[in-house]
Write a structure and sequence with these properties.
Number of helices: 4
Number of domains: 1
Order of helices and strands: HHHH
Shape: elongated
Length: about 130
Amino acid sequence: MQQNQYFIDESSIYHPALICAAGLMGAAGVAAGALAAHQAGGGPLETASHYLLFHAGPVLAIGLNSYKSKLFNVAASLIVIGALLFSVDLALRALANVKPFALAAPAGGIILILGWLMLAIAVIFRSRTGRPLR
């Protein structure tokens, strides 16, 4: 039985949703950076761009290596949610002068920190059990 090269089978180590999220974060980061470059006072939008771009790579790396690891998937999910919450808040403030809710950016930052801590915990847990990181 020949496997279609365009689909990921269940035995794969890839996590398609995280890979897709990383791609969307990268695209949004580039778009936000471009808008910030052409907008006077684009500081908050530039910061949003940086957060999306800086976190897209790690989410991609986790997505490529963590399909069957709940701890890694939770870590990546927290990173995605935190980066989006932080960046969307800054982008809406810069582009539309809209504040989604009072503590959206700080909440996003805290969630990002929790995501990075969860990633460290996942690695420690995996190394203590002797299982490979995949």
